[in-house]
Each structure stands twice: as C-alpha cells, then as structure tokens.
Design a protein that fits this description.
RNA Polymerase Alpha Subunit, Chain A, domain 2, 2 domains, 27% helix, four-stranded mixed beta sheet, alpha+beta, seven-stranded mixed beta sheet, 42% strand, 5 helices
Length: 244
C-alpha cells in the first residue's frame, strides 16, 4: 500500500510539470511554424462604394471574397483575426468594369485587377496569389423614386357572419431603388401580423417590410380594420377631410 501511495503522490506532483513543459514545447513549435512562409486561404469581407452618379448597383455581389495568400505565417494569422472587422473596399470610381456583350446594363469586373489595391488596403507583408470568384457580375440601373401602394399582410379570422374592411393610412409611400425593380413592384407589404376571431374595429401601427435594396420615406403605417356593422371613427374622419 505504501508503494502505491508513493507512486500516486509522485504522479500527482509530476503530471502538472509534464503538462507545463508539453504546452511550452507546443508554443515554441507553433511560433517557429508562424515564422515560416506558408500558403493559406481566407474568406474576407468586402464593401462596394461610389457607383456612378444617379445609378445603383444591382445583382448578387458577394459580401465576402476568397483570397489565396502566401507569406509569413504570423502575417496570415493576423489578417485572419482581423477579417471580421475591416472589410476591403471596391470603389467603382477607381475601377473600369466591362460591359457584357449584348447586355445594356450588365457589367463584369475581373478580380485579378484588384490584387494590388487589396494589398495596399490590408498593409500586406504577404503576397495575394488570387481572388475567387475571378469575375464579379453586376448591373447598373437608374436610381428612381416611385409612389407605391401599401399592401397589408394580415391574417385575420373574423367573427361568424362578419366581413372585414382593411385600410392603411397612408395608402401609398415613396420608394427609391433600381428602376427595373420599381417598374414591376406592386407595392410594399406590411410585416405579417395574425389576429384571431375579430368582432370589434381596431387600429394598429405596423412596420413595413421593405427589402434592403430599396429605401422608403417612412417605416410604419396605421392599419384600420373595420368589422361590418361596426362604426369606424377612422372612416368618419376621412369623410370629414374629403368634404373640406
């Protein structure tokens, strides 16, 4: 028993020492590896700025680009750690996109032409070997403003035998965005709301559900739901306004 106890006590004392030196060895090995020239790939965030005047960029431009790097390991590690905070910028005023043959508003940009600019932005002490995708496709469209209807997106269960009249105030709003989208857009929907078994008139202020590529002159509208047979002060007020 005494030998077993002594052996156990020895292991309890030596194990932390062994673990410490093992960790220390790993740290020295890792630092040595970082000093060597390595090759790696990172997905780096990108931001697009300064489209031509009165134009808007359309299409599914990626929010991250895959960059293939070669250089000291510590430099690649540094850029990987900073990648979520400082996106590289593609400034359309400093690029020369090419028009797709046969397409009026469609353009493309070769990412190989961005390597030098990206290196400067990243203050790189490594080489950028390539950027993927190798081609960015996008469109330029006129930025216009149109008056569009407000479309209530409501799920309402009326009381038995009742009918509903739904009106928004205002009934239309100003929307700014790409011309080809606004020319075919039926309107801007409200955020979806559900109501159960309604037998009384009510009003609610509801947020508009607007896509990111459009901008609107207001974020919320008033929605008036009138149950048939119930008096609506909202309609009375509109009648007074209309008669003035």
């Amino acid at each position: 028993m005494n030998d077993k106890k002594r052996s156990k006590q020895f292991l309890n004392k030596e194990l932390p020492v062994f673990a410490f030196f093992l960790l220390l060895s790993f740290i020295f090995w890792y630092l040595n590896e970082l000093s060597k020239e390595l090759q790696g790939t990172i997905n780096y965030p990108v931001r697009y700025i300064n489209p031509p005047k009165d134009r808007i960029v359309t299409g599914d431009l990626p929010d991250k680009l895959e960059i293939n790097l070669r250089g000291p390991g510590y430099s690649i590690l540094k850029v990987k750690l900073s990648g979520s905070r400082a996106p590289v910028v593609i400034d359309f005023t400093k690029q020369s996109p090419m028009r797709l043959p046969g397409a009026t508003h469609q353009y493309y940009l070769l990412t190989s032409g961005l390597i030098s600019n990206f290196s400067k932005q990243l203050h790189a002490d490594f080489d950028i070997l390539s950027i993927y995708p190798d081609t960015l496709f996008f469109g330029y469209d006129r930025r216009v403003t149109r008056r569009k209807a407000v479309i209530p997106d409501l799920s309402i269960e009326p009381a038995e035998g009742k009918k509903l009249i739904i009106v928004t105030e205002p009934d239309s709003i100003s929307v700014t965005g790409p011309e080809h989208i606004l020319d075919t857009l039926p309107g801007i929907f409200t955020r979806h709301r559900s109501f159960r078994r309604i037998d009384e008139n009510f009003r609610s202020r509801i947020t508009l559900d607007c896509p990111d590529y459009l901008s609107i002159d207001q974020k919320r509208v008033e929605v008036e739901v009138t149950v048939s047979g119930k008096h609506s002060s909202f309609f009375s007020l509109k009648q007074v306004r209309d008669n003035q």
